[in-house]
Amino acid sequence: MPPKLTLDRVKCSYHRPEGETVALTNISFTVSPGEFLAIIGPSGCGKSTLLSLICGLLSPDEGTILLDDSPIQSPGQQGRIGYMLQKDHLFEWRTILSNTFLGPELLHTLTPSAKKEISDMLATYGLGAFQHSRPSELSGGMRQRAALIRTLALKPELLLLDEPFSALDYQTRLSVCDDISAIIRNAGKTAILVTHDLSEAISIADRIIVLTRRPGRIKTIVPIHFSAESSSENSQAVRPLERRNLPEFSHYFNLLWKELQSDE
Ligand code: ADP
Ligand code: MG
Q: What is the pTM of this model?
């Protein structure tokens, strides 16, 4: 199957009066359709920059980025790429339902059937009773789920997640990570999650890219494989919370921990 996303020798710098900061250099990788990729690396290594490049908010100085076979032309590629951030950016003056309508509204695709689909999605993911509530009436975890549904309402082919759980407390974070991974996998989306949390990456991803300190380069790419997932009755990825209890989890943790430490 041809890749959903291809990065080839991408370099990106920030230009300021004080001088140039090279944020990323020589970044090449592909993402397969339906794959869940995680990108980890120390703070400031260029993770958010990488997502901004993929979504077309920034242009690379060198190299190419292709979605399917075409270069990224406009930010978000008219809804083909969804971007979810650490802050949920829900609008307080809108209800949860009308927050999730926002994307299709802006793209003039908010048909009655689109409305029903979004409202059904809210119900499926436990927010049915909160459709008419304001964001401030929801818990942090529920707000993050609402933000994800708002992103999915545009039916993006590729989802970019920039530390989406880091504003949540630890316990909420574990369960929201579980919920969100299930939603994304059920929808069959291709996703890229950026995080500085090693355990989170191992619990959710099919493959992990480790970046070096700035300027970020690819240090290593580690495929994540749990034997419980290849047994005949369970070809699906097991949920993040379950993965944390499997014996391979600590193997990957030690492996990736060493990779990150050797960069110090
Ligand atoms: P991460 O998300 O991994 O923490 P970023 O992608 O936000 O890292 O930033 C990578 C590097 O680029 C950082 O060292 C940061 O200081 C620099 N940087 C980020 N945004 C800008 C900007 N708008 N102008 C100049 N430098 C920036
Ligand atoms: Mg960042």
A: 0.92
